[in-house]
Amino acid sequence: MELYVHIPFCVKKCEYCDFLSFSAGSAAKKMYTDALQLELKSAAAECEGETVSSVFLGGGTPSVLEKGQIGAIMECIQENYQLSEDCEISMEANPGTLNPQKLREYHQCGINRLSLGCQSTIEEELKNLGRIHSFEEFVENYEMARSIGFSNINVDLMSAIPRQDVKSWEKNLRTIAVMEPEHISAYSLIVEEGTPFYERKLQLPSEEEERQMYEMTAEILGEYGFHQYEISNYAKVGKECRHNIGYWQREDYLGVGLGAASLRRNCRFSNTRVMETYLQDAAHPEKIRENLEELSMRDQMEEFMFLGLRMTEGISREKFLKEFQISLEKVYEKQVRKLKRLGLLEEQGKFLRLTRKGISLSNQVFVEFLF
Questions:
Q1: Is residue 315 within 8 Å of residue 250, measured between CB atoms?
Q2: Is pLDDT above 90 for 14?
Q3: Taking the model in full, what pTM does it have?
């Protein structure tokens, strides 16, 4: 199984962000960290006998927590859960919230993979996104993390953002790639309803420019030794994010913290998004869980297809047969034939995968597998 820990706090919410996040003071961070440990301890009983292969501290911005708080959360996890010997322990962090003391704490308490939110190397683009940091601060924090001993770092980059063009996107890619992180997440902006961006008239790249940006990403990063293993993710060999691969392959995961989602034994559920309720009942996980959905066999098949096809290796026919006791052809023969004819799907050994054209039109492909 995998473990996800949600930290909902940020210095300032970015203007494109629709995640569950907000700013908070020291008292709120202390209460939340204490409640999080209560939930972790209480939920551990239902995970007895299971080994945790990966832990991911996400947000929000986990690095806004104060001295000792990440260490306390990690100690609680290590005391109450059985972690595999090679457990991947990732933590998201934003430039502008880091210092040597914090980074040393993270490294010493067992975090072995750092995910840094850069988004752009160009100051005007960072300003347009409402980021709290400069590119110079990102470089300082990246080098600081390296000097402290972090040998597995991801960098986030965002394309198709306001006033960006193909040339500036290429600059972003090459500037980060030459820094030699182990992993790069490169994804395009989605303007979500309810965000400040949704209310504005934004000067965004055209659809054709966005397509060019996506196509050039794999090509440029490939020059620097990164391979694309998922629609938006690129890694050096052996440095793929195991936690996210678990999501796409439908491994069981437990989400703890405000609003955190879980998949346990083909049941999906999420925690309350109301802070007062969470703080009051965190010690009783059953009281804070909502939106319980027992997945039918049909639901599981749909998820197997549209999550698995995000991976560039595609989906295994053998695994489908083993999991559902029926061949993929008997369930999806019509859809597969159609998508192959359109040049969106192809066979690769024992796998069925998206073509390059299919990756660009992935949402169109995924819809075909919904009953």
A1: no
A2: no
A3: 0.94
